[in-house]
């Protein structure tokens, strides 16, 4: 008797299948969708580190959330091999966000075309998300420190200050993220600058001056009510780090500015 071998058809990573298993949306699924909405983009490994202890469980849930239209997939172009999936919000996810967060559906800042992002935007947004993931994992190792809030880049946290040199009408304070933590000894607030190595050192120097003016004229106290803040810059290489530190020093930056390499953002870096 001839034995026929049935080969299971491989599901394309770029298309949804019509034969997706039914799913029950769990509380963790909802947390994942909300996290993707708040961070704009999250890589598969970032979701795994935030929400799972087993990568197989992460892959199963993301498979279902994608094929049921809650999340969309984006893949970074590579020269060879394949890149891991990056997840963005999709239509059913936007509907769920409106329901879970009590936001009018028309006010959810999402359209499918927004998921077609340029490579630099993709990498920069994922880098901001990576800082958040490292921050959360660090705080999990330090139960006496609590995260008060986290806000990624937006118009709401941007501000303007007078240019002390008079060369421009104003300088812009536009951090990549803003967060606060509570320690036993008190609260601390931080603005984040994620350096991708594409910004000129002159522009970075203007950022330092803007933050110093923001502190000097106490505009931050008007906006947030706290007395002080620090600025964290994260970059990729020792050479770049030294260049940024030198520009910071030349612009008058001292103790309020902190510098890290990505590899040094291990648990307990704060």
What does this protein look like?
The structure is a single chain. It is built from 8 helices and 10 strands. The chain is an alpha+beta fold and about 270 residues long. It has 2 domains: about 25-115, Winged helix-like DNA-binding domain superfamily/Winged helix DNA-binding domain (Arc Repressor Mutant, subunit A, Orthogonal Bundle), CATH 1.10.10.10; about 140-265, no CATH class. The strands form 3 sheets. A 5-stranded mixed sheet has the order 4-7-8-9-10, sandwiched between helices. Helix 1 crosses helix 4 (about 90-100). The protein is globular and about 65 Å long. The termini are far apart. The model is unreliable at about 1-10 (pLDDT under 50).
Topology of helices and strands:
Layout: H1 27-39, E1 42-43, H2 44-51, H3 55-67, E2 71-75, E3 85-89, H4 91-101, H5 119-140, E4 146-152, E5 159-162, E6 170-173, E7 177-183, E8 186-194, H6 201-216, H7 219-224, E9 230-235, H8 238-250, E10 257-261
Parallel strand pairs: 8-9, 9-10
Antiparallel strand pairs: 1-3, 2-3, 4-7, 5-6, 7-8
């Amino acid at each position: 008797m001839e034995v026929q071998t049935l080969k299971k058809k491989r599901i394309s990573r770029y298309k949804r299948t019509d034969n997706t298993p039914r799913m029950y949306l769990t509380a963790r699924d909802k947390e994942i969708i909300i996290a993707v909405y708040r961070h704009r983009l999250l890589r598969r490994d970032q979701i795994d580190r935030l929400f799972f202890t087993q990568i197989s469980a992460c892959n199963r849930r993301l498979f279902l959330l994608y094929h049921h239209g809650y999340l969309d997939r984006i893949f970074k172009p590579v020269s060879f091999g394949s890149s891991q999936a990056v997840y963005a919000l999709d239509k059913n996810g936007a509907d769920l966000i409106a329901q879970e967060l009590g936001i009018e559906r028309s006010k959810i800042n999402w359209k499918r075309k927004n998921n077609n992002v340029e490579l630099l935007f993709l990498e920069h947004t994922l880098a901001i998300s990576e800082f958040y993931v490292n921050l959360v994992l660090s705080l999990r190792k330090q139960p006496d420190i609590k995260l008060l809030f986290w806000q990624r880049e937006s118009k709401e946290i941007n501000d303007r200050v007078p240019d002390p040199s008079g060369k421009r009408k104003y300088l812009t304070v536009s951090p990549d993220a803003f967060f606060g933590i509570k320690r036993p000894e008190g609260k601390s607030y931080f603005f984040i600058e994620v350096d991708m190595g594409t910004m000129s050192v002159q522009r970075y120097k203007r950022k330092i001056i803007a933050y110093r003016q923001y502190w000097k004229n106490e505009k931050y106290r008007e906006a947030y009510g706290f007395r002080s803040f620090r600025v964290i810059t994260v970059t990729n290489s020792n050479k770049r780090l030294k260049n940024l530190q030198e520009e910071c020093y030349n612009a008058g930056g001292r103790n309020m500015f902190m510098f890290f390499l990505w590899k040094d953002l291990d648990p307990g870096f704060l």
